[in-house]
């Protein structure tokens, strides 16, 4: 019985992943308006009803693959040595996370940015997804540091770093920052945030 349940769960996860991958591909290749339950289902060779059993909207389907990969990042963060500073943990796991989420696919980054700019539902779904991921990261940080995620601001503030970093480096990278590989941009960003951004300080008197 346990084996049968495990097999069913693996099949469900595989179907969910295939539907999300198909939705993402349709968005990047043809635009978000091409992402319909019928089109996604046809790409995976299932019924539109199956699509609706897994996802409440096309926006959820498009972003689900990113959400699942982000959960892998959260687990990688949890697996870092207990005594390691959070900033160092970010430097170790965040480059792989961002490469895993987008890879070296400028077209995909542009398509995502355009879809969020043009479609309020897509932007709302993206923000909701980021909120879920930040909460999971905050809980890991609280576990590692002994903080109270319900009362202390520090875990919540630190949990926002991955999303801030991803937005900044993808914007710069997609804009054609010469000579900067995506992982290097991530590490540079973490180092600047950890050390304190000099632009946030008062300018010296002249």
Task: List key phrases describing it.
Tetracycline Repressor, domain 2, single chain, DNA-binding, 75% helix, 206 residues, HTH-type_TetR-like_transc_reg, transcription, Homeodomain-like_sf
Description:
The chain is mostly helical and about 210 residues long. The chain is built from 10 helices and no strands. It has a domain at about 55-195: Tetracycline Repressor, domain 2 (Orthogonal Bundle). Helices cover about 75% and strands about 0% of the residues. α9 crosses α10. It is globular, with a radius of gyration of 19 Å. The mean pLDDT is about 85. InterPro entries: Homeodomain-like_sf, HTH-type_TetR-like_transc_reg, HTH_TetR, MftR_C.
Q: For the CA atoms, what is the radius of gyration?
A: 19 Å
Give the CATH superfamily of one domain. Tetracycline Repressor, domain 2
CATH topology of one domain: Tetracycline Repressor, domain 2
Number of contiguous helices: 10
Instruction: Classify the secondary structure makeup into a structural class.
Output: mainly alpha
**Poorly predicted spans:** none
Secondary structure tally: strands: 0
CATH class group of one domain: Mainly Alpha
- Helical coverage, percent range: over 70%
| Basic shape | globular
Largest sheet: none
The oligomeric status of these chains comes to single chain
Beta fraction: under 5%
Q: Based on the structure given, which CATH architecture of one domain is correct? A: Orthogonal Bundle
Mean pLDDT: 85
SSE string, helix = H, strand = E? Answer: HHHHHHHHHH
The first-to-last residue Cα distance is: 76 Å
Keywords: DNA-binding, Transcription, Transcription regulation
InterPro entries: Homeodomain-like_sf, HTH-type_TetR-like_transc_reg, HTH_TetR, MftR_C
Pfam families: TetR_C_14 (PF17754), TetR_N (PF00440)
Protein name: TetR family transcriptional regulator
């Amino acid at each position: 019985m346990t084996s049968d349940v495990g097999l069913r769960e693996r099949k469900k996860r595989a179907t969910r992943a295939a539907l999300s991958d198909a939705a993402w591909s349709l968005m990047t290749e043809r635009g978000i308006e091409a992402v319909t339950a019928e089109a996604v289902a046809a790409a995976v060779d299932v019924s539109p009803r199956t699509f609706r059993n897994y996802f409440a909207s096309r926006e959820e389907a498009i972003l689900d693959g990113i959400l699942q990969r982000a959960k892998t990042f959260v687990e990688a963060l949890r697996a870092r040595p207990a005594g390691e500073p959070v900033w160092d943990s970010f430097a170790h796991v965040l480059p792989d996370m961002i490469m895993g989420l987008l890879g070296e696919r400028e077209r995909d980054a542009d398509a995502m940015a355009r879809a969020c700019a043009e479609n309020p539902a897509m932007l709302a779904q993206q923000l909701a997804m980021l909120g879920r991921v930040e909460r999971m990261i905050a809980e890991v940080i609280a576990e590692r540091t002994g903080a109270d995620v319900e009362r202390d601001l520090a875990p919540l503030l630190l949990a926002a770093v991955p999303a801030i970093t991803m937005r900044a480096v993808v914007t710069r990278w997609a804009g054609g920052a010469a000579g900067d590989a995506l992982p290097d941009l991530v590490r540079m960003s973490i180092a600047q945030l950890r050390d304190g951004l000099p632009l946030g300080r008062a300018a010296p008197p002249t």
